[in-house]
Amino acid sequence: GDSVTQMEGPVTLSEEACLTINCTYTATGYPSLFWYVQYPGEGLQLLLKATKADDKGSNKGFEATYRKETTSFHLEKGSVQVSDSAVYFCALSLMEYGNKLVFGAGTILRVKS
Amino acid sequence: DTAVSQTPKYLVTQMGNDKSIKCEQNLGHDTMYWYKQDSKKFLKIMFSYNNKELIINETVPNRFSPKSPDKAHLNLHINSLELGDSAVYFCASSQLAGGLYEQYFGPGTRLTVT
Predict the structure, then answer these.
(1) A51: closest CA among B4, B100, B43, B19?
(2) Chains A, B: CB pairs < 8 Å
(3) For labeling, which of A51, B17, B70, B93 is most exposed (least CB within 10 Å)?
């Protein structure tokens, strides 16, 4: 079945450090890929997306590139801030399955000042 | 303006009770979803409606019944609540017609069954 695997956390970084959260997927079709972020006590917000191979999604300094050959969609940021502390979810969706989102387990990011 | 709203935000109830959670979206989307987030933060789809028609019905106990009175609303009714139903339930919406794949989430309803 379709699945998403992302690196386990928590990931603890100092402010201004570089961030990479690995995400790989398995899908029967050609999925769209997403990163969602959940701040403490809040709902999920779409961070970025990519709908086809080699697309790069970017938002708020975060980037991820859709790599079909390695079935990956790693999240990167060059310089994290304390306000980036949250849970990050990698997800895929397939239109042939009603566009349901299949999520990874989530990665907790803690940024220290 | 709130795009996807849910009520209530918190729900504490006893085992065996019946409860409902309501969801409304003002984005004009044609598709709505219910997801469950367990205590380990894992998120899983439960149901989806497209133009009031059920299109996704994952392996969910029959005690859970979604209802979509119109495109802007999707409610979740739960009968005979059990301890294992304690979770955060998220509503989401998207516009499938036109291929807008991203889903927009509500703030969640934290259900605690005692």
Answers:
(1) B100
(2) 62
(3) B70
Q: Report the SS3 class of residue B90.
A: strand
Residue type at position A94: L
Touching check for A3 and chain B: CB below 8 Å? no
The average confidence (pLDDT) of chain A is 94
pLDDT at B38: 94
Q: Does residue A17 carry a pLDDT above 90?
A: yes
Tell me, what DSSP letter sits at residue A82? G
Query: CA-CA distance, B84 to B58, in Å (whole number)?
Result: 17
Q: Of A12 and A94, which is predicted with more confidence?
A: A12
Q: With cut-offs at 50, 70 and 90, classify the pLDDT of residue B98.
A: low
Q: Is A43 close to B107, i.e. CB distance below 8 A?
A: yes
Contact between chains at A46 and B103 (C-beta distance less than 8 A): yes
SS3 at position A96: helix
Contact A29, A94 (CB under 8 A): yes
Q: Which residues of A touch B99 (CB under 8 A)?
A: 95
- Residues of A within 8 A of B50 (CB-CB) are 98
